[in-house]
Automatic annotation (TrEMBL):
It holds the Pfam family ABC1. This is ABC1 family protein. Belongs to the protein kinase superfamily. ADCK protein kinase family. Residues 130-370 form the ABC1 atypical kinase-like domain. It comes from uncultured Acidimicrobiales bacterium.
Length: 540
């Protein structure tokens, strides 16, 4: 598909072809001082997550009541069943508690809901119900926030402003509106007092989290204190929409530099951006799950997935900036096949050390360099700096032929997973923010393949991506990590091993992968349930 790029601000970013206004960073006043603001916001995180002797007592009492009672009931009931029943019961009670406790906890639940593969399936499924269950603020409240941020009545800026929001999330809600100058826009309005509430809740979470270590199954590698720290790192920048608007410009610039014109980023307004208000260009298109609509319009859905994967990987590994919250609600596919990316509250920004680590992680995975991959994980902060990589390889049996998990019994699968998790925790493994966002996006793209390109050969696509990187970034790869174009060979042995497949296994479609996952899921349930425990006890 060829994309026409008229002379405008498209040299600055992957914006729409028909601009409602032009982006000019040099004259955009809300950008002044954002580097200092971002630094101050990040510096605040250690203080917010430090466990104080005395937390905010009122909020602590409310939190303890709404969390403690459900957990106590779970401990006395579902916990005794073990396995999936226990996890489902706890997840259901935690989700209800989050909805009662309000926006901060709902936001935490929404982040967990996007963490398939990072958190237990039952927890992810339950918290997905939080995505569309945040009550909207009353119109009078919205109107007051907008007027306060603009410093004038709403009618002096907008000719129309829909009172019913397009979407209501935990931090803000989004309304369709039209400027007095005639441009259709989307207006993101922050909930009043949310910044104060978030900071109070973070202090309470930080006080409670250490006492939950080892007591409830939240996640394998994100223990409660680490999860709170990760959450604080994620949510604090969302509380100032000027930072989000800057994220929009940076992601658009990176995609343009990479020549990724299959993406469209909405333009933030040059003047109507404040801490609690963000006016941006209104975009539209097919919902990401409207596969039939896309195909009827002639959109090549396989191309949508392929360019999405490459654009995401390039942004992270070549420029160190990427959209950090890919999910169906943040994407539109336009009739010409381009993908509109929305909502930049969560954006991954990598230091140079971490960017190079991600680059080495990618190249290590496609060349089967196990030690190189583990070294990259150390630089990312997922493993401590003094980790004995050889010992990790031995303990996790990474130097042995893969075991096909579909050939194991439920008991054997559960035992294998417990052994791996125990070993990783013993080495001090954790989930840093950047790695969590990266994996979360990869999980979303994995699901996108399921709906948009189920017959895609996964191994073939990985090989194509490797070729793309060496062809388009060969000189940079040689300079930064010593990979000489044409001087390395794609070896998917390690990738295949991660699926439990032998090196000579030829192809794997998503449909094949889904079938394997269902088998594993079924056997895990069998191995973790009461029957599995009875069989294990019977062996002693």
């Amino acid at each position: 598909m060829s994309v026409s790029i008229p002379a405008s601000d498209l040299g600055l970013g992957t914006f729409s072809d028909e601009p409602p206004w032009l982006v000019d960073p040099a004259t955009t006043t809300w950008r002044i001082g954002l580097d200092r603001l971002r630094a101050r916001t990040r510096a605040e995180i250690p203080e917010l997550t430090r466990r104080r002797r005395v937390p905010p007592l009122g909020r602590l009492a409310s939190t303890a009541l709404h969390l403690g009672v459900p957990i106590a009931v779970w401990a006395a009931t579902d916990r005794r069943s073990g396995g999936a029943t226990s996890r489902a019961g706890l997840s259901r009670r935690l989700r209800r508690a989050a909805e009662t406790l309000g926006p901060t906890y709902i936001k935490l639940g929404q982040i967990i809901s996007s963490g398939e593969g990072l958190f237990p399936e039952e927890l992810v499924s339950e918290f997905k119900r939080c995505r569309d269950r945040v009550p909207a603020e009353r119109w009078e409240v919205v109107e007051q926030v907008v007027a306060e941020e603009l410093g004038r009545p709403i009618t002096e800026v907008f000719s129309s402003f829909d009172r019913t929001p397009l979407a209501a999330a935990s931090i803000a809600q989004v309304h369709a509106a039209t400027l007095l100058t005639g441009e259709p826009v989307v207006v993101k309005v922050q909930r009043p007092q949310i910044a104060t509430l978030v900071r109070s809740d973070l202090r309470v979470m930080s006080w409670i989290a250490p006492s939950l270590v080892g007591r409830i199954p939240v996640a394998a590698l994100a223990n409660p204190p680490a999860l709170v720290e990760l959450f604080a790192d994620t949510i604090t920048e969302e509380l100032d929409f000027r930072l989000e608007a800057e994220n929009m410009l940076d992601v658009a610039r990176v995609l343009a530099d990479l020549g990724q014109r299959h993406f469209v980023v909405p333009r933030p307004h040059p003047t109507l951006v404040t801490r609690r208000l963000l006016v941006m260009e209104r975009l539209s298109g097919f919902a990401f799950d409207d596969v039939a609509g896309m195909r009827d319009a002639g959109v090549d859905t396989e191309t949508v997935v392929r360019t999405g994967m490459i654009g995401f990987l390039e942004g992270a590994m070549i420029h160190g900036i990427f959209h950090g919250d890919l999910h169906g609600g943040n994407l539109f596919v336009q009739p010409d096949g381009r993908t509109a990316l929305l909502d930049y509250g969560i954006t991954g920004r990598l230091s140079e050390t971490k960017r190079l680590a991600f680059l080495r992680l990618l190249m290590g995975s496609i060349t089967n360099d196990i030690r190189g991959q583990l070294g990259a994980l150390v630089d990312l902060g997922a493993l401590p700096p003094d980790t004995d990589l050889g010992a990790v390889i031995r303990d996790l049996k990474l130097d042995r032929p893969p075991v096909d998990p579909t050939t194991l019994t439920g008991e054997e699968l559960v035992a294998e997973l417990r052994t791996i998790v125990k070993a990783l925790l013993a080495y001090g493994a954790r989930m840093p923010k950047e790695l969590m966002l990266f994996i979360k996006n990869m999980v979303f793209l994995d699901g996108a393949i399921a709906s948009l390109a189920p017959n895609l050969d996964l191994f073939g696509e990985i090989a194509q991506i490797a070729t793309y990187f060496t062809v388009n970034h060969g000189e940079r790869l040689a300079k930064e990590i010593g990979v000489v174009p044409g001087g390395f060979e794609v070896d998917l042995t390690g990738v295949k091993a991660s699926f439990g497949l032998e090196a000579d296994h030829e192809g794997l479609t998503y449909a094949d992968l889904l079938e394997r996952r269902e088998t594993i899921k079924r056997r895990l349930g069998e191995g973790a349930g009461p029957a599995g425990r009875r069989r294990r006890r019977g062996r002693h």
